[in-house]
Please model this.
Amino acid sequence: MRDQTNHPHPEGMLSIALLPHGENFNVSINSGRPLEASRIFEGKTIDETLHAIPLLFNICAQAQSVAAVRAVENALACTPGIDVEQKREILIALEGIREHLWRILTDWPKLIGQSAEVTTFASFNQSLQLLLALANPDRQLTVIPGLKKNRPSFAEDFATSWFELKYSLLEFLFSDRDFSLQEERFPAHCFVRKLLDGIVERGLEKLGDMALPALPELSFDELHFRLYDRRSASFIARPQLQGVCYETGPFARQKFHPLSQDVIRQYGLGAYPRMLARVVDLLQMINTIDAQLAGASLFRSKLPEEPVGLSQLEAVRGRLVHCVGVDRERIDHYRILAPTEWNFHPQGIAARMLASLVNQPQTTLSEQAAFLIQLIDPCVDYQFKFI
Model:
């Protein structure tokens, strides 16, 4: 969980400040994140690097590991097997489900005066960790570039364990073990419905009613230019395209889903639609795992025409890009562009939402600001203050 804090963290942190400006605020966001930490891999072997990636990035370690091995594969022009790619997608989805559940079960209840479902989350998290271990027991999926077929294949009990977790999760959240995105609305009186209704009862449903365009598909030429350039550090720190800031993450992915569109028409683009989009995103991740287990065809992002060490994927918090250069089996260039840099750009979506807050007692403002920051969900801690 990402809370207001004054304690230093090795991952760095965001410094967010609000300065009263009329009825609203000017917002300052400065990043203390070590944005070039990936350069520690330069000079190391491919094998050393791929084994070390999840140790450096404990937040979204699965997505980081998959992005890394795919970037190396593209640099070496080696293609993994479909079975391998399907299992990688499952790793990303399992991790995303865990991150979404953390917010829904431990943070959202407190917004409406209820106790966090810590024990429930711990139980689900234990099952998810077991599934991650079953899916990639020896880490071959994320440390062997160009792997054609994973050995050993999925244990037979993976599917059994997955469906047990899935039905339990759906029953708890929606009071319906068969609930799916085909439904037009959440069941009355279910856990998720009570949370969303509670937000409306407290008048928070339209808080942060702001939007930016969703981050589009980025071409390999564009990424190559941006991330191999000597000025890559400034782009990574404050990414824009043609001077425009973009949003990435659950809301950007799901705002055109029919469930999202219904509430956007009613509540605008603030807190309620963003919370609902996270729930829709969780359900989409469940669908992804079901589809991969059923052997559905996997559609990967377009590969570069020439061997270029780039990969991009949708991690739970948004678009994650890895840029790798390889020379004689060693890494000679490594850059990572994470979703937090888009969303917490000084003129990005978090800044705009915070600037829309109405000046009122600091206790209330602090609570509302923390709520909005939580909705955007940085991958590091933050410290927050009024000026």
Q: What stands out?
A: The domain at 13-386 is CATH 1.10.645.10 (Cytochrome-c3 Hydrogenase; chain B). Confidence is low (pLDDT under 50) at residues 1-10.
